[in-house]
Amino acid sequence: MNQRELPEHPDFLWANPEPKGSYDVVIVGAGGHGLATAYYLAKHHGITNVAVLERGWIAGGNMARNTTIIRSNYLWDESAAIYEHSLKLWEGLEDELGYDVFFSQRGVLNLAHTLQDVRDSVRRVEANRLNVVDAEWVDPQQVKQLCPIINIADDIRYPVMGGTYQPRAGIAKHDWVAWGYARRASELGVDIIQNCEVTGFVIDSGRVTGVETSRGRINAGKVALCAAGHTSVLAELAGFRVPIQSHPLQALVSELHEIIHPTVVMSNHVHVYVSQAHKGELVMGAGIDSYNGYGQRGSFHIIEHQMSAAVELFPAFSRAHLLRTWGGIVDVTMDASPVMGRSPVDGMYVNCGWGTGGFKAVPGAGFAYAHTIATDEPHELNRGFGLDRFVSGALIDEHGAAAVAH
Amino acid sequence: MGATQPQRLEVGGAIDRSRLVELVVDGTTVMGFAGDTVASALVANGALRVGNSIYRGRPRGILSAGVEEPNAFVLVKGEHDESMLPATTLELVSGLDLRLLDGIGVLDQKPDPAEYDKMHVHTDVAVVGAGPAGLAAAREAAATGARVVLFEQDFALGGSLLAQPDDLVEGLPAAQWVERVRAELEAAPEVTVLTRTTAFGSYDSNHVVAVEKRAEHLHGTAGDGVSRQRIWHVTAGQLVLATGAFERPIVFADNDVPGIMLASAVVGYIGRYAALPGRDAVVFTTNDSGYAAAHALVRAGATVQVVDARDGGPGERVAAAATAAGLTVRTGSAVVGVDGDVAVEAAWIARIDADGALVGDAERVPCDLVAVSGGWTPNVSLHSQRQGALHWDDDLAGFVPTAPVRDQHLAGAVRGTYWTEGCLVEGAAVGQTAAAAVGFTREDGCAATDLDVAAVDEERAARAGRTRQLWLVESREGGYATHFVDLQRDNTAADVLRATGAGMRSVEHVKRYTSISTGVDQGRIGAVNAIGLLTRLLTGDDARAIPPGQPGQDERVGAPGSAPDGIPAGGAPRPTPGAIGNTTFRAPFTPVAFVALAGRSRGELFDAARTTPVHPWHVDHGARFEDVGQWKRPWYYPRPGEDMDAAVARECRAAREGVAFMDATTLGKIEIRGGDAGEFLNRVYTNAFKKLAVGKARYGVMCKPDGMVFDDGVVLRLAEDRYFATTTTGGAARVLEWLEEWSQTEWPELDVVCTSVTEQWATVAVVGPRSRDVIARLAPDLDVSKEAFGFMEFRETVLASGIPARICRITFSGELAFEINVPTWFGLTVWEDVAAAGADFDITPYGTETMHVLRAEKAYPIVGQDTDGTVTPQDLGMDWIVSTTKDFIGKRSYSRASHQGAGRKQLVSVLPVDRSLRLPEGAQLVESGALGDYTGEGLPARPIPMLGHVTSSYHSQALGRSFGLALVKDGRNRIGQTLIASFEGRFAEVEVADAVLYDTEGARRDG
């Protein structure tokens, strides 16, 4: 693809109606997950009397701030199932949405730098394959073939000992994905309401019947929370707690350069994940800031460490320039897996805790969440991700096990 | 272009005409002078045209004279090519070889050989910007004796004064005044003046991050050890922002043709560099400041016509003065288009109405330069990075700071103070205030100047000269496809129109739909003009979908129930820019090379390797190393002709049959002291330590609150109130952090102090049936008999060498073993002594691989290898280590449903039916028959249920076969079953067996 040619956006994306007094379903949060949920509610379940309420601008939270990596090579069965389903939806998404979202299956390489990295990588590859997820172990020479700009010399501090490769993984243009869902949802009759903050819930005998907003009360048959880290705040308004912590996670881009990086490279050990977007900017994620907070900004030493790691692995990036840094808020559960399912309040549903992995899950999560809302029962894909696992202890521990960042 | 510099003025400028400097641009030699930038040298050579635009391939020219440049990007060739540098900020030095870029850089794939470093500095007052306001502030603060750091991104001090060297400042020509202040600052002992240093990031606690260019301007004479660039981390008690303002272009048809230049840049090229951008100029302005360009051009000998968009009123005074000076001034008019492709040939000028639409016919005026001024935007980046408030000031026609951030101060153009005297007053005032806030006042007790800040405030709007907010000029032909808003991203008014037509209301959406403000200039050229356009395109109804919270946005916007001020509900389409707000300002202010931020953390120093005192011996003896955490650990010691398997087999045999030794120094070591140390350890380990006798050792496991194994190690009780705990090599830091977290935040009432002593002790493990003989020789004073020195005990002794040592009888192999701990500096000596003492027994050094094999034969788990954060001690078969009587971290989790009944994965061993097959670690295990028709080729048709995986896998000398450890669902109930291991598209049968395969009686540990 020529990096000097960009596709044109649709002439019309979404309408900005005034909120109605009542909806069958009110979705709180118009990020990727909220918009995809609205779309699948309308498309698969025929529920179109839906409002997606957004306190700010749509897709302005983590959807606008992630590094757009899409993959499904997760370790555990439950994770592999939902992310793989999501990836399959990604593979048909541009057709479905009628929108060129720059979905590029350029593959994702997860590098191994220590013997334990190698063990973890092999374990994940073997598990992925039995879970019907494309995955390969690649040796350093194969790493070099897939990504010629990686330094695989064995005299660097943490030499590349190989990696896992998922060929079907890739990237997409985040904003456009959200807009594509918003457009289709809007066409199907969903009301997308920006500048509408939810300030409370109307709960009657343990059942939610509406939301209070900055634009007045809106009655609702069902309420679906889709607010990532701010789910904690909303849940508190509804009288329950969710086990998530919110941390800043920074990311950054360089200016545009001729394309030299053909894939996506992630290295947990030296803390770098990087791709080169279609236009030519290097897009890079940094490590998580350790403190909790809702400020969408982090500490600069995290960026400096990130740059060291980048230059170590990619000498060609030495004099690329840091153009812009920013922060998102990642909502992290203790097992680094999401929460999706019913809440303690009847008619209210939760979808949060995607941590650093929410973007890739947008289609799959929207699909499964819509099912959960429409039927009041979790879909097979999210059955294991209910809040009850924090009581039963049946955790799906991806950070302990996979040892892979997103 | 040649060496003639045809556009260089005969006199003037701050260039050094005695030093001719040659540069090469796309293979052509161009001459300039020292003191030029690359851009000013190009201007002096009449070469305004630079690369083409990124997407539309339109010829582009130098637009600005500063960091906001959207067009003139170059690649500098050299030891490591650097791309996307604005020619307008690139200092002209000899030997520059450049390539003009079309908006996209080219990364050099060679390593960067240059050095980069960092400085960390605390100061009382930091001042960003060395224009009149910043210099005045720095001077005043310095006069109090405060420590002052002054940042200036340019290679010269002076800011706006550089463009007007002859203007009088405090009675001196500006250039002389700057020199005087520089001399004062340099004479002050506590002042650091950093030129070529851009403060690009502003973080909490007045932590400012800056990058200094240190070497290239020295023409290769910087010398060894001088870094090419340096990152400064400056934490300032008080921070003064005197960061100036940026001029905006005007959005009209074909406003990107080379020869269209910001009016202030024209002033700068003439005044600072004596370079004349054009001989026949049209100055198109919406405010007073454009007239400065007109006068400068006239003085430089150019013909000038002024086109002032304002009609009477605010512009009258300056227009009259210009007319009096002989200039032609057309008011109420606009440049509505230009002729020319690669250079401006003529401007089309017409009268315009209140909406910017043409009134009557346009007139064609031949010219080679159109200087434009669409008003000014304060440079609030650093202010806004700290969430400093902004608001739209209609008089100044810009977003200005509402109030400084705590412990910060604003002076000069950053707050809309656009005249030199005003800047000086504000600068001096904040210089004094800032110094006073950190306890410094002038010893003479009086203010240096008569600072009438109130008068500056009153005068500010009038001095700025009211700007016409002309966001769009209609063209003769209609349409907006060449009305450029963001030149770098090739975005036009048509793109903005398309965005709002698509339903975009938020300025953030418009940015993302169009990509305005995403270029290297980060919206300095286009952002406010785009916002201005939105005020023309959106209506009151639209405004209800505009979310609040954007920088500079009127806080009433988005309030429930009412449309914001300036947007009558359902009414006329005239929201103010304040109803829309800015996109977010983010660090860095200007781009910074990745490698500069890496600093010295590259190569060997990327993450400094830790080595033990014995490391040189390991190297000398041919060890291969493994990275474990930050440590380099010997992995195995191949002898000539040996591969890894052979070496490990030999090392294993030595440990099981004779004696072997390994360097165990890397284990984490933490001393835990205090009256409550025992109670504390009782709470963090699953087993009890409170009653451990002094002189005894105990193995312990610690878990996270979810009950999963977190780390393990042996703990010695040194005294009633003193324990010595070891951790895994990789886990030392996180265990210490864990202990600190619990002692500081959860149990502050406990008297306990934890200290890392990892670096203080060297440890040599002596292992094998003959180890007692070796220890006896080394420590003649110690009774090493089985009876006198029991398992899990330790002794303090003095070795034959006179070195004091603490010797423990613990084992990680199942064999009789001792661990000798000595102060680190004796580590190598004692290691060599062990080697000598064991020579008669053919003592053999071994590495981590052999250690792993030996411990696996005994099913001693490696935390992080045989566990993964989902494994409990019970899963490991260590129920015995989990106390049922005391409370400890993780205990409550064991009562949860997932810990009851069947289904947990348990540690077992797996024995490949093919006794020579060593399974890959990570191989998955499935039931026999679960594979169905899956052959291993490609992927299976549907998921195949997995029972677990192989965590460790080796060939055992002791067993004479391969074996592995595995975590298997209900593993202990499957002992004797045959499962299938799946790996690399192959399958192999394995038998599940008890975890412990060797010396199941535990008979060998006593020798």
TrEMBL record, chain A:
Keyword Flavoprotein: yes
Keywords: Cytoplasm, FAD, Flavoprotein, FMN, Nucleotide-binding, Oxidoreductase
Pfam families: DAO
One MF annotation (Gene Ontology) recorded for this entry: nucleotide binding
Catalytic activity: sarcosine + O2 + H2O = formaldehyde + glycine + H2O2; sarcosine + (6S)-5,6,7,8-tetrahydrofolate + O2 = (6R)-5,10-methylene-5,6,7,8-tetrahydrofolate + glycine + H2O2
Domain Rhodanese per the UniProt entry, residue ranges: 25-69
InterPro entries noted in UniProt: FAD-dep_OxRdtase (IPR006076), FAD/NAD-bd_sf (IPR036188), Rhodanese-like_dom (IPR001763), SoxB (IPR006278)
Gene Ontology biological process terms from the UniProt entry: tetrahydrofolate metabolic process
Cofactor entry: FMN; FAD
Keyword Cytoplasm: yes
Cellular component, GO annotation: cytoplasm
Location in or out of the cell: Cytoplasm
Domain of life according to the entry: Bacteria
Gene3D superfamilies hit by this protein: D-Amino Acid Oxidase, subunit A, domain 2, FAD/NAD(P)-binding domain
Main location: cytoplasm
EC number: 1.5.3.24
Family in the record: Belongs to the SoxB family.
Protein name, UniProt field: Sarcosine oxidase subunit beta
TrEMBL record, chain B:
Domain Aminomethyltransferase C-terminal, chain residue ranges per copy: 905-999
Key words, A-Z: Oxidoreductase
Highest taxon of source: Bacteria
Chain residue ranges for the region called Disordered: 542-579
Cross-referenced SUPFAM superfamilies: Aminomethyltransferase beta-barrel domain, FAD/NAD(P)-binding domain, Folate-binding domain
PANTHER family recorded: AMINOMETHYLTRANSFERASE, AMINOMETHYLTRANSFERASE, MITOCHONDRIAL
Identification of the protein by name: Sarcosine oxidase subunit alpha
Native source species: Humibacillus xanthopallidus
